[in-house]
Fold this sequence. Notes:
- This protein is α+β, with helices and mostly antiparallel strands and 390 residues long.
- It contains 10 helices and 14 strands.
- The chain has helices spanning 30-55, 58-61, 72-107, 171-180, 183-193, 233-239, 258-273, 305-315, 326-342, 365-371, and strands at 4-12, 20-28, 143-145, 151-154, 159-161, 197-204, 209-212, 214-215, 244-250, 279-285, 289-291, 301-302, 351-357, 382-386.
- Residues 76-111 form a coiled coil.
Amino acid sequence: KPTIFLCAFFIMGDCWLNCNLYVLCSSVKLWASAFGGEIKSISAKYSGSQLLQKVVKYKEFEKSVRVEEIDGLKLVKNLAVKMEEVFRKKAEATRRLVEAAEEAHHQHEENPDLQYEYFNAVLINEVDEMGNNVELGGEFLLEPNDHFNNLSVNLSLSVVQVPTNMYNKDPDIVNGVYWSEALNKVFVDNFERDPTLIWQYFGSAKGFFRQYPGVKWHPDEHGVIGFDCRNRKWYIQAATSPKDVVILVDVSGSMKGLRLTIARQTVSSILDTLGDDDFFNVIAYNQEIHYVEPCLNGTLVRADRTNKDHFREHLDKLFAKGIGLLGEALAEAFTILNDFNQTGRGSVCSQAIMLVTDGATEMYDDVFEKYNWPERKVTLFLSLFLFSST
Length: 390
Ligand SMILES: *[C@@H]1O[C@H](CO)[C@@H](O)[C@H](O)[C@H]1NC(C)=O
Ligand SMILES: *[C@@H]1O[C@H](CO)[C@@H](O)[C@H](O)[C@H]1NC(C)=O
Ligand SMILES: *[C@@H]1O[C@H](CO)[C@@H](O)[C@H](O)[C@H]1NC(C)=O
Ligand SMILES: *[C@@H]1O[C@H](CO)[C@@H](O)[C@H](O)[C@H]1NC(C)=O
């Protein structure tokens, strides 16, 4: 039985300088066998009746046997409808998680001194020499469940795993774990609505990993847990799922010389990360906006090798002058992302604006409010590539 991961990827931050990458996933297994069964029984029926026609003297059985014609198109349509239904349900579960995560994250105020006891997947139910629960451990009720390969799980709570090489009380981690507690009730609710779901995950770019249902993790013989969600295939695939990307390059006077060289290299390396399924454009801005390739203004192009090379050549023609006014460039970026989405091409749900500058001093809350909040159609997909001034 193959396991399918449905993942949503989002970048979020209250402040551009402090953006976090999150990936939410649900794993799904049962649908595959359900469909497999259906296809098999239909094909057995179909070929069986054909066989009957050929081998047995059909006429003799004519009265007792009826050969039923199967409408292939209808069959495929039915399957497609069912498949769509299954995927829609899973995608909905993931979307509910994304919404809850956005909301909780939005409500949360980072607090570097935050103290918070969470259930650490490795430390739960561990006791010290005195028989007391260890810190971040605590009593965690587990019961074997055959939906989860007879593993002992807790269906009301998730657990958090932190890679061995990271400090499990790091303020970034404690804050992330704290606000993502809000996901517990969505995990439970998703599972109640759709019992074919298996594991539900939340992976943070800071490295912590929340897993539902709660389960105890055991270190290997060296006492190490090498698992880092950021190295998992589902995380990488989701984080690199098809994207529409607009890259904004600051070409104001302060970007003269080496900085412009670094900016070009940065754009070039962002382009390296894009693949054939992604769409992009590059806009340079000072007090005006300049499409790096003026013939391709107002749209996005496929990030294939030819287009990327073509844009790289144009990057060499950039020069720095004037003052950098980001507002208009951002508005343009939002507009073309939105227009492009209307065309039905591109990724529909994963859009990003990448900003290459030597410093973002202004906040453009009004632009974000207009294009983003409060409807929140576009999750804040903003990555800031900031490089040092030397
Ligand atoms: C999950 O663990 C918590 C803490 O031990 C416990 O209160 C709760 O009853 C458990 N839930 C289930 C469904 O076992
Ligand atoms: C789980 O355990 C039960 C009884 O112990 C057994 O019948 C069942 O086949 C097991 N399921 C799996 C998935 O191992
Ligand atoms: C985009 O192209 C149109 C027509 O080709 C032109 O009128 C417009 O000024 C261009 N916009 C920018 C920002 O270059
Ligand atoms: C793109 O368009 C679809 C359908 O109109 C809409 O559901 C979706 O929210 C849009 N995506 C973004 C990022 O605006």
